[in-house]
Sequence to fold (458 residues):
Amino acid sequence: MGATSRAPDAHDHPPGGSRPARRRLSVDRRREELMAAALELFSKHDAEDVSVDDVASAAGASRALVYHYFGGKQELYVTALRGAAEELEERLRPVGGGSALEEIADGLTRYFDFVEDHAAGFAALLRGGPANRTGEVGEIVESVRRRMLRMITHRMRVEEPGAALRVTLRSWIASVEIAGLDWLENRDMDRATLESLLVDQMTALLGVAARHDHQVNVLLADLLPMRAQ
Amino acid sequence: MGATSRAPDAHDHPPGGSRPARRRLSVDRRREELMAAALELFSKHDAEDVSVDDVASAAGASRALVYHYFGGKQELYVTALRGAAEELEERLRPVGGGSALEEIADGLTRYFDFVEDHAAGFAALLRGGPANRTGEVGEIVESVRRRMLRMITHRMRVEEPGAALRVTLRSWIASVEIAGLDWLENRDMDRATLESLLVDQMTALLGVAARHDHQVNVLLADLLPMRAQ
Fold:
């Protein structure tokens, strides 16, 4: 963390720069540094063992500043997770241009970019933590899953997925998650192979659902005109 | 709950029954009733809103008895979840007699019997709760998943699954979980169809993995001699 291009902060004094804009940027950056430090710590240690002092010290900030920005450890944890979830959703936003399956494969690559870039945050997001005591972490994870489901059905031009399509896509999303966690734990398969396995899984799972359900059968003929069932 | 066959309790006085055995049975039964009441409440309400008093009152017991058996709400919650997980693992124990895929399909039926019989407990187990603050719930859920993975690979006569088989089976187990939760949430697909969809998913996912991995390819030829890849 902190190795990205450096934004101007309070120590930079360009001759005629506007002070409020500079100060605002510095505040945002400070907050981001605290969040990055928090995510890193929460994902590498049992949340019970991470203190506000640890986060402050990892970010080179005061304990008071952490409380000022976040209110406390629980809020810091939830905020950091929410930030990670928002970044993931932002990355998954479809760029357009390919077939539905190509775009889903492309989204998968961006999902694994996120897993790779934010290994700690990803594991923290899915493993849950202290905030689950009020269901907030579960809600964040569920919200990402719902968003992924909507992105996929939207790209497939499906307004309201039937039971078979919904279960199939939710299954696949769960597969992608578990594959991401498994990859972080074992790293014994290269990413390209794993991604290609998951794309093939999507096609195969849709093929299975098509045998059970008319909506999926019609959809699949549209998605895979070359190898219609 | 409590509608199952009634075991003898303190009010039954068979002429020559052994008192210690009767008392022991009664203690176990009381504890089970408290656990059943706890699971039911924890899964129907936000854990924050369930008190020891609620559990005691639902089981027709005193608050002191709950503390006596479990120590407190957190311990009660973890104990109830652990009990549910043990019951699930017990039900999944293979009975033998069929082909590997038949036994897996049979295990799936018993998994959904559990989901149906213990809807509240199943949802509680997977949704997590207050105990996640110390990772105990996550550990219980993970332990069930690991046990399922071992049961399946053992039945497939695989000592050490390679990366592709491991990821594929973990994906499928995640699919089964999400399908169980989805079924409880929506109930818009009949169980037999859903189970058959999941068995077909297993075959299809192994077929995908076989295209990427030699171990799975050899395994699949053994599992599905009729439609070897």
